[in-house]
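Structure ticket #2291
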Amino acid sequence: MKKLFLILIFTFSINSVFADSPLTSSVFYQAYLDMPIVQEAFKSKGKITDETWVFILDDMNPLHVKLAIINAIGFEHEGVMLSEMYLMYVMKAKNYQSYLDFKWGATSDELICYSYMLALDNYYNTTDAFEIAREALRKAPNSFAVNIVYNLIKSQGLTAYGEYCYASKLFLEIKSNTNIVMDMRIEALSYIFEYMISVSENCKTNNFYK
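Resolution: structure written out below.
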């Protein structure tokens, strides 16, 4: 029953409008524009260079920069399915034998990058992205970066059903969680939280957001 409820929450109508939503409004890449690779990603219009893919696939590179690159690339690039490209590259680079092999054997970094791309590719239906993000969170529960992307995807589904207050509360609870390790730039926080706090303005429990 619980699983069915989650599926219903994260399956959207294709006619819904998501131009102003958690996934599309959190432009935290702006805190990383001092990095040429992020600048290039922002200007790419979905045409990702080999250099960018190499950076994203390299386990030695920090996750928060990879997520900033994905955020900078954004969404709605005609003819480009970023998640499909990533899956092809990562399965070849890491020798995953099947999608299931990747899903259950990939690192938390690989899973959260894939889920974020998948959510941006299809932000009106984040069911599959949410499932992958949940597995990434299970593997890295204390990562701020993983928690943020997981909650962006989760909140996308919640706000589609008008659950703005609950979605905002999820983000602010991250701030008060002392077990979470800050593995993103502090400057990125305002870009991440700005939209979620703004949609909470009409919540009955406004004192929670002060």
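Closing remark: Residues 23-209 form one domain.
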